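debug: dumping io for the single-chain case to check the tokenizer round-trip. Nothing else runs in this session.
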Amino acid sequence: MALHRLAPLAAICALTLSATLTAPAQAQVQTHSTATQQRAAEPYCETHKCIALTFDDGPAEYTNDLLKVLKKYKAKATFFLIGNRVQKHPKVTKNIAKGGHEVGNHTWSHKYLTDLEYKAIYSEVKKGQDAIKKATGKTPVLFRAPGGLINDGVRTIIGKFGMVQIPGTVATQDYIKDYRDVEFLTGRALDIADQDEVMLMHETVKETIESLPAVLEDLTAQGYSFVTVSKLLEGQKLTPGESYPDQLPMSGD
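debug: decoded output
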């Protein structure tokens, strides 16, 4: 009879001992899970050597060639497209988006916005926005003004569309005809490349596309991750209409 009474007590003790022994392990699993979640929430570029490659004025004759090079090196980029060219080349535009690249608004017809009245600025931005959305199914959240030229009117309108401005931080200057040499552009890109830079280039320049394999090869060996602008800015509080990264706007075409 005494043995019969002791059996439930022994079982309870065994369960208690088991719970006591497994509690630290459970706590360790929970701690590991929390740490994993925290790492997952941490912006990618806080723990990686990032650079954002950007290309203006497309879609263009060399865009598909550019996409092939980017794919080969597992590089993501941001394309600032002109609306009337998007309208003429919707398939190429879709290919850009399908490749996992980001598409930004570079106006409808590449007019210098500071030369225009408010209504005309609004039209340039809206028509560019509408063309890109129609082609990709996505509404751009990034804007780059032709020539990097902005004023208060431009800022206000860009803000109304919920976009931020991305003038770029460095440029290969491939918009200068005398610089359109593959060797020069390769060296120039490598000289200006640095962590968290937004590099401005043009997909309309053949020599830029031809220089890119060597540039990507070298920067990959240096440990760079090629990310979209939005990925680079991840975790930052962005105000529509303002320019990012936070610095003086640079000129460009």
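debug: round-trip ok. The first helix runs from residue 2 to 41.
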